[in-house]
Fold this protein.
Amino acid sequence: MSVERKALRRASVASFIGNFVEWFDYAAYGYLATVIAVVFFPQTDKTSGLLAAFAVFAISFIVRPIGGIIWGHIGDRHGRRNALAWSILIMSAATFGIAFLPTYAQVGMWAPLLLLLIRLVQGFSASGEYAGASAFLAEYAPDNKRGFYTCLVPASTAAGLLFGSLFVAVLYNLLDSQQLHEWGWRLPFLLAAPLGLIGRYIRLRLQDTPKFLEMEKALENKEAEHKAPIRQLFGVYRLKVLVAIGVTCLNAVAFYLVLSYMPTYLSAEMGMSETDSFMASTVSLATYIGFIFLMGKLSDRFGRKTMLVAASVLFLGLTVPLFSLLNGQSFMVILLIQIAFGLMLAMNDGTLPCFLTEIFPTRVRYSGFAFSFNTANALFGGTAPFIATWLISVSGDKMAPAWFLVVAAAVALLATLAVRETAHHALPD
């Protein structure tokens, strides 16, 4: 095996493991939302407690645009590898800390405040992960396989969600309600420490990307110009940033509604048992991962714009009909509906990371990706479960989340139509 292929393989493994660890935490929190609502917000009714749990989930996203700027600066200025090694260390430490938080019954209001503090730290560290891993792989991959290799990032994200779903499903099956509320909810967060250390070790053994090293050499005599990538991003590429935020809207809303919020929606709103809802989500996540790799390959062949437009159109036309079919259906029908959502989402998610790396040049690639991706997720992604629950609460309409998703698809479609095709070319320098 050539040196280049070995380096690409090691970069792929490092990106996959790191992103897996980051998103396993988000899965654990999202899938245990009903338990966390009782443990940290026991003085509220069921809906208010769930809203409070999702509000803490959403507030952690506030720091993500700021984190995107900071991690982007580190990644563009000091190297992709350094940013990724530090982001996974901070995330793992914060996630591990959740396992030892006191409950509301023990310390009162300090419990949700401490939970919020840790979630803010997690949001900050996560803001550098997705963008950094995507840029890292895109800059290592051959031009004609860039879509396939960068789709490892959303695939590893889904793998983290899948493992989280399986883990929580096992907890619901093995523990009774009292055990789950007393100590069972802590178990997933304990895994963060060993997994995070493994991911950091692998990343530190990597060399930085060829593109970054070439850029460093080219800019040796232009150090001052290279010090603040974010200034150039907002000065020269601000229109591309706005387009990137618009395109990412669909990913932000659909990802958290379809893959994270759906088990809670099925159990809390549709009356499905928690075990069945987690099982359906687990199976659909497994198929979603397979779809991701297919869509990454198709984007290399047909282009990023083609795939993103197709995904937006499908969400516009099928979201409301599919949501309307969820009520009162058998397990198999609900599973098929979730698989259909997963297919549409994979069409978007398997293409988006490569698209966002291709619209920004090397000098601001990490910053442009991180800021636009995290801004969209802060505004529309992290708030999606909260907004969905709130919309149902105030309107009494269980179809409200579907219409929210339709609006996001419309915004993404308009933004995608405003850009040229980015595939079939070398990464811009």
The chain has one domain: 3-417. The CA atoms of residues 1 and 286 lie 30 Å apart.
